[in-house]
From TrEMBL:
Binds 1 zinc ion per subunit. It comes from Syntrophothermus lipocalidus (strain DSM 12680 / TGB-C1). Zn(2+) binds at C177, C185, C188, C191. Catalyzes the ATP-dependent conversion of 7-carboxy-7-deazaguanine (CDG) to 7-cyano-7-deazaguanine (preQ(0)). Belongs to the QueC family. The gene is queC. Its cofactor is Zn(2+). Pfam families: QueC (PF06508). This is 7-cyano-7-deazaguanine synthase. The keyword Zinc applies. The keyword Membrane does not apply. One of its GO terms (biological process) is tRNA queuosine(34) biosynthetic process. ATP binds at L8, S9, G10, G11, L12, D13, S14, T15, L16, C17, T18. NCBIfam families: 7-cyano-7-deazaguanine synthase QueC (TIGR00364).
Length: 217
C-alpha cells in the first residue's frame, strides 16, 4: 500500500483530502506548518485533534520567516476578506517541498494537499497545472519521485462539505477561518465560502455541521 504525508491545516479541505486518501493509502504523518499565521493556534489544535481522531501521527513544522511578508494571514493590521489580501508568496510550494523532504526520509511516495477548484480561480498554486509542475520538479528533487496528490482538487466547497458530512468527519474539530478567536469570524474569505456552502446545503438552521463551533475537550 502506498504511504503518504498529509499537509493538514485543520480546515475542511485538508481534512477531507486526508480522510479520502485513507481509503487507498497509509497516511503515516500529518504535517501542520506554523508560519506565523494569525490562526496558527487554532489550526495546530484542530489538526492535532483530527490527526488523533484518525490515528495519524502529527508534527508541527515552523516556517516563521513567512510572517515577514505582507499578507492578511500573518499581519494583524491587514484584512483577510479577499484572496488578494491573503496571498503569501510561494506558500504552497514551500509547504509541499517541506513535506516531500519528510516523505522521502520516511519512505512515503505521496504528499497530500487539500486543493479545490473554487479557490484555484484566485490562487494559481491550488490548480491542476501547479500540481503537474510541482510533480515534474519532485521527480528530480526526490530519489523516490514523491508526487503530490489532491483528492479534492475537482470539488468546490459545497461538494466538499456534503462529502465530509456523508463520511461523518468531525467538523466541530476543524478550523477554516483565517482569524484567531473562540469562534470563526464569519467575514474572512474562507468563512464566507463555507457560509455559502452551508446555505447551498440548507444547513443554516443548525450548528450540527458548522466547522469550528465547539472543540470538544
Amino acid at each position: 500500500m502506498m504511504k503518504a504525508i498529509t499537509l493538514l491545516s485543520g480546515g475542511l479541505d485538508s481534512t477531507l483530502c486526508t480522510v479520502l486518501a485513507l481509503r487507498d493509502m497509509e497516511v503515516i504523518l500529518a504535517l501542520t506548518v506554523d508560519y506565523g499565521q494569525k490562526a496558527r493556534t487554532r489550526e495546530v489544535e484542530s489538526a492535532g485533534r483530527i490527526a488523533a481522531f484518525y490515528n495519524i501521527p502529527h508534527r508541527v513544522v515552523e516556517a516563521g520567516f513567512l510572517r515577514t511578508f505582507a499578507s492578511g494571514l500573518t499581519r494583524a493590521e491587514r484584512s483577510t476578506r479577499s484572496s488578494r489580501e491573503v496571498w503569501v508568496p510561494n506558500r504552497n510550494g514551500l509547504f509541499i517541498n517541506i513535506a516531500a523532504c519528510y516523505a522521502e526520509e520516511m519512505g512515503a511516495e505521496a504528499v497530500l494537499v487539500g486543493f479545490n477548484r473554487e479557490e484555484a480561480v484566485d490562487f494559481p498554486d491550488n490548480s491542476p497545472d501547479f500540481v503537474s509542475a510541482v510533480n515534474r520538479s519532485l521527480s528530480y528533487s526526490t530519489r523516490n519521485q514523491v508526487r503530490v496528490i489532491s483528492y479534492t482538487m475537482e470539488m468546490d466547497k459545497t461538494e466538499m462539505l456534503r462529502e465530509a458530512i456523508r463520511l461523518g468527519i468531525p467538523l466541530h474539530y476543524t478550523w477554516s477561518c483565517y482569524e484567531d478567536g473562540p469562534s470563526p469570524c464569519g467575514v474572512c474569505a474562507s468563512c464566507r465560502l463555507l457560509a455559502k456552502a452551508r446555505e447551498n446545503l440548507d444547513l443554516r438552521a443548525t450548528d450540527e455541521h458548522r466547522p469550528g463551533t465547539q472543540l470538544k475537550p
